[in-house]
Write a structure and sequence with these properties.
about 375 residues; alpha/beta; 11 helices
């Protein structure tokens, strides 16, 4: 059993993006309670959220944007805020948004500090907000906490793998390190032809000294476990093994699981477990982050599995009755944690995935 640094998400439970916003913060409450009921919080080292070091945040975000975001903390929208991505349906101006965003980034920072001090694994479920850009909010994300964590890790490591398995392209993190050979960013996601943010195509590989240090595998809608595991086994693993990372930052958004209301995937927990097992087999420190996930039951199941994997504990499939009763108050109902057999893809999906895989194997420097 490995001791895991685990961020207590309680400070985030009362925050809200608004009644009709798809990102529900009670997913953190219910997930943490499910983890507790499965005995997974007994042996972790609790890490308490703190505000991020603003100088670390400014390594990526512009001061002008941060100043306006701080003004938005009162929850009062001004016309000029729209130029910074604030006040849209995706990124509303709500009370406490600056504070909550800095707290999320700070939580990822303390996970990085935990690893720098010798911890093997750390997990911030409130993190993984990978779309925020230097000068604007984007895609439910206001401050890019994975970038903050990576900048902290760069104080010790010079070969960092950022692996993003959220349904959406990790565009903000790719942007931060697109010309930096110290960070290999790999994103598997639903193709930008069909899903926000419309980027992350296979030919995006980095620039300058960072050419070859970005990899994207865009999947067509309705991709199942079969094609996902094939792509990871035959293409992505090769790039990671060639890079030989010293530490992994794993963004594990749950929105690639089937029945997510905002995406068009057909994955089960089997694909995620395949990735988790491979990442842990690298035998390097892992900083795990949350991310997307708009089917709250899926989020609860997946991040409970992830914590169990980090701890090296086996858990059963049962959902405790007391947890079920609490979850129903939020309209959440799940009957089990794990999915059954792998989902299958159509021949058209297979053709497109193999085309992209062959393109990357032939053209991506990290696959040579």
């Amino acid at each position: 059993m490995v001791r895991v640094g685990f961020v207590d998400t309680a400070p985030f439970w009362k925050f809200s993006y608004g009644e009709y916003h798809p990102l529900k913060m009670y997913r953190l409450l219910l997930t943490q309670e499910l983890q507790r009921s499965k005995g997974l919080l007994e042996d972790v080292e609790i890490l308490y959220p703190k505000m991020a070091d603003i100088n670390l945040v400014k390594k990526f975000h512009l001061e002008d944007y941060l100043r306006v975001l701080e003004m938005a903390d009162e929850g009062k929208w001004k016309e000029y805020m729209i130029y910074y991505g604030l006040g849209t349906g995706d990124c509303p101006v709500v009370e406490g948004i600056y504070t909550a965003s800095l707290l999320s980034a700070g939580s990822s920072q303390i996970c990085a500090e935990y690893i720098i001090k010798g911890g093997k694994y750390a997990f911030n479920m409130a993190g993984g907000l990978h779309h925020a850009m230097p000068d604007r909010a984007s895609g439910f994300c206001y401050i890019n906490d994975p970038v903050v964590a990576i900048f902290k890790l760069l104080e010790k490591y010079d070969r960092i793998l950022y692996l993003d398995i959220d349904a959406h392209h990790g565009d903000g993190v790719e942007r931060a390190f697109y010309s930096d050979p110290r960070v290999l960013t790999i994103s598997t996601h639903e193709s930008g032809m069909y899903l926000f943010p419309g980027t992350g195509f296979e030919y995006e590989m980095g620039e300058g000294e960072g050419f070859g240090y970005s990899m994207n595998f865009p999947f067509p809608p309705n991709s199942g476990d079969d094609v996902y595991i094939w792509a990871f086994e035959n293409v992505i693993k090769k790039a990671i093994e060639n890079f030989k990372p010293q530490v992994v930052v794993l963004q594990s958004g749950a929105d690639a699981l089937r029945k997510d209301p905002l995406t068009h995937w057909n994955l089960t927990t089997n694909s995620y477990i395949f990735v988790y097992d491979f990442v842990l087999s690298l035998n390097v420190p892992v900083l795990a982050l949350g991310g997307g996930g708009y089917n709250v039951g899926n989020v609860c199941r997946l991040w409970t599995i992830l914590l169990s994997k980090l701890e090296g504990k086996k858990i059963d499939d049962e959902i405790p009755g007391e947890w079920k009763e609490r979850a129903r108050l939020y309209g959440v109902n799940i009957e089990r944690i794990f999915d059954d057999e792998n989902t299958q893809s159509s021949s058209a999906v297979w053709d497109e995935v193999k085309r992209i895989g062959e393109y990357l194997l032939k053209n991506h420097p990290m696959c040579k």
